[in-house]
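Sequence in, structure out.
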Amino acid sequence: MKEEKVNFIVIGYGHIGYRHVQLILENRNCELLGVVEVENKVPSTIRHWTNLKDCLQSLGNLSSSTVASICLPNGLHASIAKFCIENGMHVLIEKPMCISVEEGEQLITTANVHQKQVFIVKQNRYSPSVKWMKEMVDAQKIGGILYVGMNCFWNRDERYYQTGGWRGTKDLDGGTLFTQFSHFIDILYWVFGDIKNIQAKFANLTHVNQIDFEDTGLVNFEFERGGLGSINYTTSVWDKNLESSMVVIGEKGSFKIGGQYMNTIDYCHVSDYVLPEFDTKVLANHYGAFSGSAANHHFVIENIVKVLHGNEQIAANAVEGLKVVDIISRIYESGNK
């Protein structure tokens, strides 16, 4: 029996909305019903509305496997997702899920009441090096965790923070950890668990007239499972991104993943373990993924199709998405005391 296609409505047609549209069109198990976009130009070949209510009225009765893909500014994610769920759709939300714990909790409650799925984009979980790291930690190959250090050193200058845009605003952006580095905090949580006893310090070093919050932060904490951790980050690197890396020190060894998106394995010295020789392609083939920031979104779309067809568990759910928001919120609360 042929399975029903999963229908998508993409809300927001900026850089990431365009990416969602292309992947939906490329997937033979998906159908793009159209795009809702106010400002950016949408190709004439794609059905397009400037208002979500007009879109729903025009489409009429939606199938039970319709998904709203929400690619809007951070501060709009929760309210638009809630509206879509109340109107009979599952939702796929780009990171972050929301920018406050309260609105995330309300969203989860709404999804439970209407029995709809909330999918969160966590495409970096599919990165080969990240999957390798989780495998190493879950198998306790390095023993107990002693220390994890995360460094995110990126460039975000006037080319990124354009005058009049939503980026850099407190209500729609939310903060550097929400927009730039929430994927990496998700990786930290996904692999090592929750954190406690947070101490944070922030500064705005080079974006005083561009953003409403910090561009640089120093964060120290403890893991609930044991071990110490730190997050050092900035968007003040000149001209281009430097790295996003994670150093892991355990009782029986250490390793480091790096590159711009934690997509390389830079160091590994672990007792009774020999890191196989590989290049990027070999690593990708072994773990079934590819390196890069937005390169793994197709796995997210595939997971949605399999979940709605009853063939797979959800890869990144709303509870996990909310936990990342909770961690970021507690970091900001610590640094802004």
